[in-house]
Amino acid sequence: MKPSIPKGTRDFSSSEIAKRRFIFETIQEVFECYGFEPIETPSFENSSTLMGKYGEEGDRLIFKILNSGNYLQKVTDEALEKKDLNQISPKISEKALRYDLTVPFARYVVQHQNELVFPFKRYQIQPVWRADRPQKGRFREFYQCDADVVGSDSLWQEVEFVSLYDAVFSKLRLDDVVIRINNRKILTGIAELIGAEDKLIDFTVALDKLDKIGREGVLNEMRSKGLSEEALTELEPVFDLTGTNLEQLQAMESMLQDSEIGMKGVEELRFVVEKLEELKLDSARLELDITLARGLNYYTGAIFEVQTDKMKLGSIGGGGRYDDLTGIFGLKGMSGVGISFGLDRIYMVLEELDLFSEDVVKKPKALFVNFGEKEALYALKAIQALRRDGVRAELYPSSAKMKKQMNYADKREIHFVVLAGEEEMNTGKFGVKNMRTGDQQNCNQEELMRLLGSKD
RNA sequence: GUGGUUGUAGCUCAGUUGGUUAGAGCGCUAGAUUGUGGUUCUAGAGGUCGCCGGUUCGAGACCGGUCUUCCACCCCA
Q1: Residue at shortest CA–C1' distance from B74
Q2: Residue A314, C-beta contacts closer than 8 angstroms, at least 6 positions apart
Q3: Strand B nucleotides in reach of protein CB atoms, 7 A cut-off
Q4: Domain that holds residue A320
Q5: How far apart are CA A375 and CA A359, in angstroms?
Q6: Which nucleotide is nearest to A133 (CA to C1')?
Q7: What is the pLDDT, as a whole number, of residue A162?
Q8: Protein CA at A81 to nucleotide C1' at B54, angstroms
Q9: Does some domain include residue A105?
Q10: Distance (Å, rounded) from C-alpha A63 to C-alpha A296?
Q11: Which of A59, A141, A255, A393 is the residue whose CA sits 20 to 30 A from A191?
Q12: Has residue A7 been placed in a domain?
């Protein structure tokens, strides 16, 4: 049997782990700096918790877990005969793998509402699974790093999240990141204005594709979804928006005069944009984009999407406000807003741009050559002392040929090889070879500690 | 879910209109070098050609199916 792993999953080498950890730690540090506290939820939930929360498309992409035991027991012969999946699926599968972190979080908030202090700020860094077809930057198992606040409808939270995005990407030295921002209320307002409220989802999904399929493409898609020519004509000004964020908002304001919800959206966006102009971003750019829609249908206010033009890849982060996410689990009137970082895509970008510094990968500092039982014991005494000082040191496990041991050190890129044979033992010395320069010197244990204990 | 693409040694890949025993580079193991890695030289090991079926006297090559890789769409981080 040829060993393999499932489609869309990956093994990680130690150097990849080191780099991934660096990203995790950076994000985690910033999350905590902004006052978020960690939680974790199970990797699988009851199907009923997840199903129906991500739209029809989402349901298809949820990994369902087959019941244990005789999972066909509850299925009627009739349903089986007809191969009626909608009937069979819920009977044979009652659990499903986590599809994102937001819905489990909503469940968590409702379930633990009495123990939480609101506004509740949590972050969560865990893998999620999607039964998607893998392609560039798209995996079936990947990590999301989420931070959300529930129990506050303050727009300052939106301001904080944009600032948080900026802080993380600045720390990762990934500059020229674009944070696109929009507000669902504006989209609703536009739909209202052109008389397409009932087709809000189709409308926003089509509009979102503007940069991909162009103006005509968008109009065609809207036509095919049943929007009237009249509506499309009224939409024209949206495509012609230009100028700064505030100028565009100005234009939207005059356009949405007759839509109460639209005006609310403009007002909200203006608040966020204005405050961030005062506060200044470090390296990211905040860009108002009226065409930004994002598929998830629970967003009701601000929506964010983070992209980098340094690499052709989907978004590396996204988020938004949802006024009633916990409502479906029975807790009404709880507004939440949150953002997510796509770790795996950020990794790809940093790798592509060669932004990982070399020292994220921790190599052992010293390998002691094994010359035999007595010498090995002598070496291990020094190794123990080094380890107490936090120096990564080890002994070659067997007294193999010198060439083999040296070769081993070389391949693992170990900085120093320490040689202590009979002669060194008798004089209490150690031969230390620097594998990068090839220099070799004799020293006593004290000097050895100083040499290997130093930075690099 | 739709369309395309890929699969030959551990890795990267050659392999002619179908024709004997399927190759190269790198890597690996050993030796040259019994206390010194990288460089060099020599020798060696390593392949049911993704899998199943079909066409043929004969298939790594052609046909069908299936799995896999990567890419695009849908959708998304």
Answers
A1: A57
A2: A137, A138, A345
A3: 1-3, 28, 30-31, 33-38, 50, 68-77
A4: 14-62+99-352
A5: 32
A6: B1
A7: 97
A8: 33
A9: yes
A10: 18
A11: A59
A12: no
